[in-house]
Amino acid sequence: MRAVVQHGTGGPEVLEVADRPEPTRKPGEVLVRTEAIGVPFYETQLRSGLIPAGPAPAVFGHEAAGIVVEADDETLLGRRVVTMSFTGGAYAEVVAASQYTLVPDTVTPEQAVAAAVPASVALALMHTADVEAGETVLVEAVSGAIGGYLARLAERRGARVVATAGKGKADIDHHDPDWRQKVPEGVDVVFESIGGPRAAELLAKLAPHGRILAYGLLSGEFPTFPVAGLIARGITLIGFGGPDAYGKRVAAVRAEALGLVADGTLTPVLDRTYALADVAAAHARVESREGVGKVVLIP
Ligand SMILES: NC(=O)c1ccc[n+]([C@@H]2O[C@H](COP(=O)([O-])OP(=O)(O)OC[C@H]3O[C@@H](n4cnc5c(N)ncnc54)[C@H](OP(=O)(O)O)[C@@H]3O)[C@@H](O)[C@H]2O)c1
Questions:
Q1: Which of 83, 200, 219, 254 could share a disulfide with 120, CB 3.0–4.6 Å?
Q2: Could you tell me which CATH class the domain 2-102+269-298 is placed in?
Q3: Looking at domain 118-243, what is its CATH homologous superfamily?
């Protein structure tokens, strides 16, 4: 099969298309012939070495949708699923995965990869934050996949959304180093995905007993908050991530998230599709931040 192999860390050129043997399926796993492969932002950080990755060379990638060709449960054969693999292997024509979710008939493979991870992360974050009608919610990086779904889900709950994104894409431009000063006071919930030491400036914008859900590090740095600032205002800081959140709470709502796509509540935003051989261009596109929506590889 054709696959994209990562040779060390660096620019998009460390990803090379090569012929590799098809993976074999372990008990409990499904073997899937892929139709669409997602390119999330964090994979560019894994590729560059900003986030530590596993040993190289190895087949890269984590999210794919396709048709089941082998499974313990024969009723799965021929069905479309979306798969998650934490150890890589998704940038390939065939993927073996233990985490998979059936895709509703009306959802395309491209939509499935555009929704499976970010919409289910957004849904799990929304359940964790327990956003209520009338609350004010700050969604950072609303132009990103998770941010876009968070805004839609918060509005659906009757919350008022304040959003940040690159220039011209939202009311607050988060590339302005002083953007946090433009956030109105009295925010009840912050969905924090940018990180960095200046995240602490948001404390002054939170309503008493507000909550911060820290789940990303788009800036490349984890957010820092002084505990004194949390205590003084009775603010709750919730870290969301790691195997428990990502592997369990997010996986638990994946079918619900795909159902919200099927019934039209959530609309996956697709940026561009690229052939597997054009993987370097796909990574360059994600890093350029010029687009809005999911970049997808077609094997
Ligand atoms: N905790 C979890 O369980 C979990 C799960 C999945 C992902 N994540 C994390 O959540 C974050 C968002 O993921 P995503 O998939 O929604 O990302 P995405 O769809 O790739 O969106 C990223 C967007 O963030 C903005 N951005 C990029 N670099 C930035 C920077 N240095 N400062 C400010 N904004 C920046 C860009 O928007 P503009 O072009 O508009 O600036 C970009 O479009 C990532 O950090 C990811 O690692 C967490």
A1: 254
A2: alpha beta
A3: NAD(P)-binding Rossmann-like Domain (3.40.50.720)
